[in-house]
Amino acid sequence: MIIFNQEKSTFHLKTAKTSYIMKIFDSGHLFHLYWGNSLNTNNLDYSIPRQNWYKELEKNYDTNEFQLEFYPQEFPGYGATDLRSPIIELEFADGSSTTDFKYVKHKIYSGKHKLDGLPATYTENNSEAQTLEITLSDTIKNIDAILSFTVFDNYNAITRSVKLINKSNHNIKIQRILSASLDFKESNFEILHLSGAWARECHIERMPLRKGTQSIESRRGASSHSQNPFIALVKPNVTENYGEVYAMSLVYSGNFLANIEVDMYYSCRMQIGINPFDFTWLLKPNSTFQTPEAVLVYSNDGITGMSHTYQNLYAKRLIRGNWRDKARPILINNWEATYFDFDEVKIKKIAQEASNFGIELFVLDDGWFGQRNSDDCSLGDWFVNENKLHGGLKKLVDDINSMGLKFGLWFEPEMICPVSELYKKHPDWCLHVKGRKRSTARHQLVLDLSRKDVCEYIIDSVSTILSNANIEYVKWDMNRNMNEIGSDLLAPENQREVAHRYILGLYYILEKITQKFPNILFESCASGGGRFDPGMLYYMPQTWTSDNTDAIERLKIQYGTSIVYPNIAMGCHVSAVPNHQVSRITPFSTRGIAAMCGNFGYELDLTKLNNQEKEQAKAQIKFYKMIRNLIQFGDFYRLQSPFNSNEVAWSFVAKDKSEAIVSFFRVLAQPNHPQVTIRAVGLEKNSIYQDERTGLTYGGDELMSVGINIPDDIFQGAIYDSLSNKVLFAGMTNNSIKGDYSSFIWHFIKIK
Is 477 a catalytic residue? Predict the structure, then answer.
């Protein structure tokens, strides 16, 4: 709901649980008054600060001693009387940069419009949301900024974006244009964000705010492994289930900046948007520039409350298409089983074993095209290598379909190898700067997606492959970041637009291909989680969470990723040991239970499993099918963090509270370890739940208040009754491996 109080000149944006209030001040500037728990009032004039601090500058707006630096704003400019970080910085034809945007008009309407060329949240009918568009103008330079706010009532989220319109007769250079900026009157917060590296994505970082500027960002051309486009301010006493959280998430896959500034008066400003670093956009007369969408979430129910808002909104109103509400198949990927060393005989052997296990989808990874027998050639040459796949791709797909399996295929369409037919024909098609070395990574260069001809080549070549065989899943990979960012087709004054134009080109490609093949399940990948962001989820409903398949490392990666993203978006696989990334040996059971945190699958050679492992794999697959809807569509709760404990726990609870899964992991063994108890969360306290393994019953209040003791038989082997074909495992732990990396899983079903 959006309420405009004309008498008080206030906008009140209300969700089911929150209020966000702004005011048009006497000067015409748009002030931020409040964001937090739902309020009934529309009058918060008394909250506007009236401090009479020492003035660094003097400027009057028919109000005595008025200075913007002392007031919380929604769209702070640069060069007037606010010396804090602006949301916008422009360079005009006369060389000046001062801006001063004031209210002109507004409109409120039901529903939500699409953003031109950009992914964004959406509505399925106009009753789901209301949108407020406020037009601000710098009348001296004749430029407008349209601020869009959409209120998702039932999802308790507010989205923001900015459209800039050049109404003048002169070119304007945009040096900085962020999507959202919020001022807080205090700075007693801690920053929460997700940081990491390749194979170590989305680790949770939390630290106190300090005076000055603190930021996270990407300058890599992608949202990146190192930082995720998300930031939150939390009160120092915030826990998973208690306290206030203010969060911003950016629906964008390229360079971003999330910035917090604490000024000399201990107020703070929170911002997110496209990274101004190495960015300039030439805005010609009568043209517009649209920023990506920022999604703002307030929670008074701790970090879990914030997470559930993002997870629910992104699962239902960001992810779209035929696969949004469908259960995702259990898959086997051949990458770690074969790497480049395979032919159709080897592939079909793995597929046949997968079919025997009850796996539903076979995915052929890198190495099926061009002359691709190693990673130093052929990217860009999207034609089948029939020396490897005798009879061609269609025959292989048909053969695997006949085994009862769907077929999936790996692509890396955004890249080109210098050793390729495509590079011979079009050496100018990669990102490069004339006169500079073309730096390769993984023996590849980045195609210039700012070019329409390159985009059309990718669409055509990928579409040809997908049209000629029954391919039902695509893994879309991207294995390097950008260097020497330049384009042959752009003028010198447009070269600093290339990184953003690349992302717009990528979105154009993805829109065309996913709409052309609506029944294919697309999974994005960027060396794992290097582009796990809301922008990619708009086109592809799941992401390969990390190239690191080690079960113990995945505890942190998956735990951290769940801070923002729904578990149905996470690809989680069981792989071989010693693990190919960290050489760790973990029990088969621990690998299985850790992978039951999202879309379940395997990344190993099934033909090399011993008999015990085969039985455990079959048990895991049967069990996951039983709980699949709960894992993929239920609510996720983080119970015990891997970042500060030797023991880790999480749970899934059905939306209707009818069943729950609780998973526990002990990383390192301890002598005479204390009894560990895990308390469930999110159940109905007055209902009775039955442990599916033991048949014992517990009250929901007992499970949440007293908790569950980790059983003494946690090191015992899997119990699998092949006669009744029922999973009865106590922990699915290998008999032959005792000690470190033990795990346990409970399945509770509500019986009354």
Answer: yes
